[in-house]
Recover the amino acids of this structure.
């Protein structure tokens, strides 16, 4: 311990950010993540000020055989951002954003949320695909693929990457892009944080001004009408239209179904596009109006506060989406207003530009799925964990006959086993394993939806041994 303390003191001398030990000011605040169901205590937290700090922290962890976790700037459902007894590399202080409007490129550091980056790019009338909640972290969402409001028009977040800067397991800084380490660049676009710590993302940007967006809210008794129209219109919708179907509890305790609408095309066509939904009849609430992309990104923020969260997810099978039984089963499991006020079912509208990218162009391979279903138990008290988790699992299991078996890696819960993780990476798995063998053969970066190196086996603590 004396040697460890001396080594930490030495690290402090060359560390620009802050090193936090248990009991020091800021330690508990920093180790606490968005998903409050996760309560872990690292032996040391390194709050990095820049790439050099990331290198120093990672090399320290390797020298002292410490488990490594990496925290970005936003949500973390699985809790992989924080470890027990190891070194937590905290990137959240790294919030630099540089926008080059002439080249339509933004360089983002990994501590940014999408609100941070959208604020920087929208100042120039530019955007890139970035999730559906403004407090989501740029890094985690992008590395796992990056569903978002603009994915049907401009592709996933990872499809808009031009290059990355990364610190490898050996503590070296490399660039990856189409012409430099192209196989690594393939892997980071969907393969998560398995290959290193990305310290800078270069995003391609697109012009975007006023959009039409908001919610059309109906009582859940209209659920069948809403879902039938949703699945009728969504498959042939123009790329500029992204929809979502949300079943949840409204603020007054009423069970509701909502249509989320984002039209990013020419405004003169906007009302014509949403007219079929307005013909459903008078909603409880209609917030669909001309607005900005940055404001749209905040639409679900109030319903995603820090708290206890649990997710189940899967892509819906294209051939089964039109079966009436799908709607029957979905509505049969809307046990609202329980188990908790923030619990919900959300059906994401996919396709468009993201579906036209060749499936082997990036490590994100699930390009043809028409919809994604997320079963979310959220905002519950700790003593209600069991019943909330049970509801999410039972609902997901009931929907399994309509699912493809694949899943979006960013929505996997903390209890996702190897089989589900492997299914999430799909046909890219073997290629990803080969990339892991090349860049992280000792599985230093294993607190993630892990791609295990082929030459290693997993130990009881998740570590690998030859």
């Amino acid at each position: 311990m004396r040697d460890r303390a001396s080594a930490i003191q030495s690290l402090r001398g060359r560390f620009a950010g802050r090193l936090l030990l248990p009991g020091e000011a800021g330690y508990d605040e920093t180790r606490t993540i968005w998903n409050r169901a996760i309560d872990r205590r690292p032996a040391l937290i390194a709050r990095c000020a820049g790439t050099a700090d990331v290198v120093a922290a990672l090399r320290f962890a390797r020298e002292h055989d410490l488990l490594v976790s990496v925290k970005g700037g936003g949500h973390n459902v699985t809790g992989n951002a924080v470890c027990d007894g190891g070194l937590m590399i905290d990137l959240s202080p790294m919030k630099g954003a540089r926008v080059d409007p002439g080249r339509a490129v933004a360089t983002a550091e990994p501590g940014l949320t999408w609100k941070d980056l959208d604020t920087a790019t929208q100042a120039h009338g530019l955007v890139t695909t970035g999730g559906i909640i403004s407090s989501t972290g740029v890094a985690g969402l992008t590395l796992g693929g990056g569903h978002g409001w603009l994915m049907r028009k401009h592709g996933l977040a990872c499809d808009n990457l031009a290059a990355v800067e990364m610190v490898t397991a050996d503590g070296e800084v490399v660039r990856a892009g189409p012409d430099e380490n192209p196989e690594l660049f393939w892997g980071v676009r969907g393969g998560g944080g398995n290959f290193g710590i990305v310290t800078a993302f270069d995003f391609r940007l697109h012009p975007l001004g006023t959009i039409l967006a908001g919610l059309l809210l109906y009582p859940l008794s209209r659920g069948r009408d809403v879902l039938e129209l949703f699945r009728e219109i969504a498959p042939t919708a123009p790329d500029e239209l992204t929809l979502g179907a949300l079943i949840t509890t409204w603020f007054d305790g009423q069970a509701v179904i909502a249509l989320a609408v984002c039209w990013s095309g020419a405004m003169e066509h906007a009302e014509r596009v949403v007219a079929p939904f307005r013909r459903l009849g008078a909603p409880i609430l209609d917030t669909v109006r001309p607005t900005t992309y940055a404001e749209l990104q905040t639409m679900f923020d109030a319903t995603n506060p820090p708290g206890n969260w649990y997710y189940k997810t899967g892509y819906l099978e294209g051939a089964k989406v039109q079966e009436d039984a799908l709607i029957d089963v979905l509505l049969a499991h809307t046990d609202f207003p329980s188990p908790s006020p923030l619990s919900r079912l959300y059906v994401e509208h996919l396709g468009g530009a993201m579906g036209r990218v060749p499936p082997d162009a990036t490590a994100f391979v699930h390009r043809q799925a028409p919809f994604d279903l997320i079963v979310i138990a959220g905002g519950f008290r700790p003593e209600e964990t069991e019943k909330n988790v049970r509801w999410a699992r039972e609902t997901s299991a009931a929907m399994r006959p309509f699912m493809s078996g694949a899943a979006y890696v960013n929505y996997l819960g903390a209890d996702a086993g190897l089989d589900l993780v492997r299914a999430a990476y799909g046909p890219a798995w073997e290629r990803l394993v080969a990339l892991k063998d090349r860049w992280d053969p000792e599985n230093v970066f294993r607190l993630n939806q892990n791609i295990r190196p082929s030459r290693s086996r997993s130990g009881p603590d998740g570590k690998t041994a030859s």
Remarks:
- The longest strand covers residues 211-219.
